[in-house]
Amino acid sequence: MLTKKSRIKDVYANPIGRDIINRMLLQMNINRKAVTNPIVGNLKIMVLPKLLKNQLDEGFVDTLLTLLNTEDETVRSTDEIIPREWWKEAVFYQIYPRSFKDSNGDGIGDLQGIISKLDYIKELGIDAIWLSPIYDSPNDDNGYDIRDYHKIMSDFGTMEDFDKLLTEIHNRGMRLIMDLVVNHTSDEHKWYQQAIHEPDSKYGDYYIFKPQPNNWTSFFSGSAWNYVEERNQYALHLFSKKQMDLNWENEALRHEIHDMVKWWLEKGVDGFRLDVINYISKRKGLPDGNKSIGKLMGYYGVEHYFYGPSLHDYLHELKEKVFMPYNAFSVGETPGAGMEMSKLLTADYRKELDMVFSFDHLETPGHTRYDDYQYDLNYLKSCMVNWMENYGNHCQPSLFYENHDNPRMISKINANQKYRYVLGKLLAVIQLTLRGTPFIYQGQELGMINQCFKTISEIRDVESLNLYDELCNTMKEEEAFSKILTGSRDHARTPMQWSGEQYAGFSTVKPWIMMDEDYKSCNAKLQLQDENSILRFFQKLIALRKEYKVIYYGNVIVSNKKVKDLFTYYRKDENEALYIEINLSTTNKKRTKHPKGRLLLSNYTEDILSSKDRLSFLRPYEANIWAIYP
Ligand code: ISL
Ligand code: CA
């Protein structure tokens, strides 16, 4: 049992203690050495707030102790052989249906549109498709607010269209992963309607009601509570006012969710991506959030639900009763969960989730998505090295840069068009040659970048629109809009760029969200005809990954760790070996050694350099994959 008198090193030795202190240091952009050096390590934990320049108050230590005394198990490390699984070898492709392909000329992507592009996805080398939500929804948060789990959203088509899509995907030897949004439902879902109109019915306890709100805030701005006149109580919503959090403590509710998931698995779905799944267990009594943590994180109360007391029990139950009987795959979206928590959620012998998405590598320390800064690839290197060396063989990393909630990665790193495609290819080399399961987001394979939204009227995302309104209380509209422009999720939600025709071949009419002129030079049709395009490069890279199985389970041996702007590593097993060398900067980078082997793939196609130069340095953002002798 850890107490205020415990030493910082003992708290840091606790898996949850380490994750939380690392998160605070990341938020404050303080190097871990600040707490890992022996002098500090021997200090009592209660001095930590002072050490961290009083950005955290006394209450933080109490919260920390409450959290870490709920969990003392550490995932045992092993160098046993990694168990083989299809999802450890697969390349996943995420589709945001609303923006993928419109088949009936209403400007909105749909299921028949996806069916018409399955051959394109298959030729890319994809093994499994993750579909963002396609269920009936009033679209307050574009489908992440579900009204009926057993019905297809009318914008996207019918259940017949879905059955056809599933069959066509399976006919091509691919798998389909659905999005499971069960932390909350739409306030129009019949469960919620019955909960507020018949509070004494079994549904009355399906959601989280309180006589008075606490200080928790929503991720989409404002309080996390709606006043419900019908019950003269307040109802919790961590996201939009129309996304009501479910009460997972209610066993009847959990069983209804289990039955719903089984219903889709009976249809032949191969697995699920589980939306904000680490938020489903809230601390008993729903206490106020600690002010200093809230100020630092930007959201109040998060410490009471991002790793709740019954999370593991609920996930273990879901795995045993639902996923295992169908051998279904599961990947959890777990914002805020550190590496140790991720291990406890995914270690194969714990039978909870197969994988998680951790987001710590998407913003450099001290930055949030809405901060205007240039992302440093050396930070990506340090994150990847940390996960490759410390995640362990009981756990499978997920490898991604983009999804429907984040701006385009190329734009975050370097907006100079000159480097656009060579940089996109560099990112692909890292994502598809490290140990882990890659998730490619629609358009990433084309090198799509952020769009030039001109006015707030072109923005569609509830998170951006709410934040804009909030910012306009304290700043001018232009300033508020430029802040939105930096981090808006809409950058990832503009129409897929299929061709140079009008509306990029996405639709025959004006799409539901704007797009700028970029599609005229960046589109799938052009790139399929260009041997050196990034699309062709992704095809070759995925084919290489399937040929060199060392990439799936081989060891990762990183060299030049301390060399800035140079990321080099080996993939080795008893049969074969690869050497990957990458220049993370826009200046020529001296090589520390010349690989002896065969160059398999490079993001530089033309060999303009003399062999001598060829040997001595790497060009800007150059990334090469060599086959070397084991
Ligand atoms: O990054 C985020 C918070 O800092 C958010 O973009 C995101 O809300 C969070 O990662 C959870 O995302 C998921 O749940 C949301 C939905 O809006 C997102 O699209 C989904 O990915 C609520 O369902
Ligand atoms: Ca349509």
Automatic annotation (TrEMBL):
Residues 94-493 form the Glycosyl hydrolase family 13 catalytic domain. Signal peptide: none annotated. One of its GO terms (biological process) is oligosaccharide catabolic process. GO terms for molecular function: alpha-amylase activity. It holds the Pfam family Alpha-amylase. Belongs to the glycosyl hydrolase 13 family. This is Oligo-1,6-glucosidase. It comes from Anaerocolumna chitinilytica. The lineage of its organism: Bacteria, Bacillati, Bacillota, Clostridia, Lachnospirales.
